[in-house]
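Researcher: We plan to redesign the surface later, but first we want a full-length starting point. Tokens attached.
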């Protein structure tokens, strides 16, 4: 037997909740990709397991303040290093330079 949704979750409100969840999943995926690439390049695998808490509080705040598009771009830049030699993104210092250049 299917459960009925509470009135507050019907219609547009449910769509809004689903869209917010999708956006949050995209953000989390982009951060995960970024940290996985940094962990691989720096051989500091704690980045993968500890997440953003491994970075300084200032850098955590900068990453959290980025728009979804910016954080996706950042994760793409981290991956691109594997395929192109001209994109230098292989250390925490590279991440910090990127954040200093693109965060507001």
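Model: Full-length starting sequence:
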């Amino acid at each position: 037997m299917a459960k009925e949704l509470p009135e507050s979750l019907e219609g547009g409100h449910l769509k809004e909740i689903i869209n917010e969840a999708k956006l949050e999943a995209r953000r989390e995926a982009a951060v995960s990709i970024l940290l996985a690439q940094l962990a691989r390049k720096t051989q500091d695998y704690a980045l993968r397991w500890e997440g953003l808490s491994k970075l300084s509080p200032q850098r955590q705040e900068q990453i959290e303040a980025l728009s979804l598009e910016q954080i996706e771009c950042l994760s793409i830049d981290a991956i691109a290093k594997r395929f192109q030699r001209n994109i230098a993104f292989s250390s925490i210092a590279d991440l910090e330079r990127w954040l200093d250049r693109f965060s507001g």
